[in-house]
Amino acid sequence: MKLLIQELILFLLSFLLVFIIYQIFIVRRAKPKKMVNKKDKRIKEPKEPLEVTYLVSRGLDLKKVDYNKLLFVVSMVSSIDIALVVTIIMLLKVFILEIIVGFISTIGIILLSYQLVYLVYKKKGMINNESKRNRG
């Protein structure tokens, strides 16, 4: 029982740490706001996170989605993914096994979680040109 509580605390702490870091360094930079470059007065668009780019490549229509809510969902999902991988790795005791399982589980968990996010947005009707994607 004590090990279970320790692993739960590890999961929650790693989730909170990753979520805070993700909010500060990724989401805040991707918020839709106009940034003006002071030297040449051009409007610089914020960088879109890789996760959002992946979902858009799958067919997510950003015009139908609340972008701030999407950024929050992406940060939650990424934080849960990383916390889950950390928890899985910490259960193992052999270093090489930690590396192998960490690599494989990271890829699998990220692909699975963003597939689920895609399916949720698909169910809400926020995917565009679905018939074109399935033909090509």
Principal-axes geometry comes out as globular
The span between the termini is 52 Å
Spatial strand arrangement across the major sheet: 1-2
Contiguous uncertain segments of 5+ residues: none
Gyration radius over CA:
18 Å
* Biggest sheet features: 2 strands, antiparallel
Category by helix and strand content: mainly alpha
Percent range of helical residues: over 70%
Work out the number of β strands: 2
Percentage of residues in DSSP E strands = under 5%
Order of helices and strands: HEEHHHH
Number of helices: 5
What is the residue-averaged pLDDT?
Answer: 86
Account of the 3D structure:
The chain is mainly α and 136 residues long. 72% of the residues lie in helices and 3% in strands. It has helices at residues 2-30, 50-58, 67-91, 95-123, 130-135, and strands at 35-36, 43-44. It has a two-stranded antiparallel sheet with strand order 1-2. The N and C termini lie far apart (52 Å). The relative contact order is 0.14.
Notable features of this structure?
136 residues, mainly alpha, 5 helices, two-stranded antiparallel sheet, 72% helix, 2 strands
Summarize it:
By secondary structure, the chain is mainly α. 72% of the residues lie in helices and 3% in strands.
